[in-house]
Amino acid sequence: MNQERVFSVLLGPHVSEKTATAAASSSQYAFRVARDATKPEIRTAVERLFKVKVLDVRVLNVKGKVKLNRNGVAKRSDWKKAYVRLETGQEIDFTVAE
After folding, report:
1. pLDDT tens profile 14-28
2. List of domains in the chain
């Protein structure tokens, strides 16, 4: 996988209360990923960008919510989320920029 694809696979970390507890207890992190990204691409992107060893990757498609507004009904975009589990003793620090 070329370097350009590595940067386009991961769109950013997905931070929520659920992902914060998962990161603290089992070194599992959540990322927003491209809709066409595969598990091997996600694994390679995380390993190259953060220099860690990935144990497994779980992927799910999040369906966009249907919302009511003053113009009628609108639908939010669908997106893809990946849960990445790291080997024990490794962690990703999102606050430090290299």
Report:
1. 999 999 999 888 899
2. 3-86 (3.30.70.330)
